[in-house]
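Tokens as discussed.
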């Protein structure tokens, strides 16, 4: 039995281009040619083509198929290795679907961890505040993130938060001092409700110092000088000079 390239491609359910590619990469041996120069494929070529197709359908790459050779009709070790890879891929995809479901159900932002995103939904955070939260999630440890999430999820409504967000960059000294003083009770209450805030970086992977410096640098980038001055005044009022 002898088939042309087009015929064997049709029998194997593949394309002429695929057959030629398998020749190029050494997966399929070149057949003999007729007197007119046309290739003539036999049963062995068809069996090999069908095996290549079957293995690629199972998820094997052409490189791995080449490693197997063509003598093992049941490559158990390779099949088990692929099965383990597929199981890991399925587990990863299931985690991704679960996280996507959580994001969709809660209309949560995609730049925050799923456990923290719901806490920010009703916190009334400004764009700068949200960006600061994103940075914090990259440097805090599990316990620090839990405390931070609890705090964000239970932020008391206080008009001074909105005043801080709207503070003009050219706000005068008296305005800054007044705002800082009016923020003191709110912040003291926040620490009373969430005592873990005082040791937020205790389990930070890079250490508390690195976490503090990173968040501090982010604040310098996110808030304008008048707001930063209010925060410095607030710190002095809470902790002394």
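Sequence:
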């Amino acid at each position: 039995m002898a088939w042309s390239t087009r015929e064997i491609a049709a029998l194997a359910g593949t394309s002429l281009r695929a057959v030629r590619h398998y020749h190029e990469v050494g997966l399929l041996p070149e057949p003999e040619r007729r007197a007119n120069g046309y290739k003539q494929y036999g049963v062995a070529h068809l069996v090999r083509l069908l095996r290549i197709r079957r293995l690629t359908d199972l998820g094997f790459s052409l490189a791995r198929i080449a490693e197997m050779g063509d003598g093992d009709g049941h490559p158990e070790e390779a099949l088990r290795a692929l099965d383990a890879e597929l199981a890991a891929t399925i587990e990863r995809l299931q985690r991704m679907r679960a996280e996507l479901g959580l994001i969709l159900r809660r209309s949560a932002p995609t730049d925050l961890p799923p456990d923290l995103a719901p806490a920010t939904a009703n916190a009334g955070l400004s764009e700068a505040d949200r960006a600061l939260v994103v940075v914090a999630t990259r440097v805090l440890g599990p316990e620090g993130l839990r405390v931070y999430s609890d705090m964000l999820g239970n932020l008391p409504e206080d008009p001074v938060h909105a005043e801080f967000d709207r503070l003009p960059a050219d706000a005068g000294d008296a305005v800054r001092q007044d705002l800082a003083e009016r923020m003191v009770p709110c912040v003291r209450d926040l620490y009373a409700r969430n005592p873990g805030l005082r040791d937020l970086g205790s389990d930070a992977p890079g250490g508390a110092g690195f976490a503090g410096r990173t968040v501090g640098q982010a604040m310098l980038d996110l808030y304008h000088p008048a707001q930063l001055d209010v925060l410095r005044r607030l710190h002095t009022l809470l902790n002394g000079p």
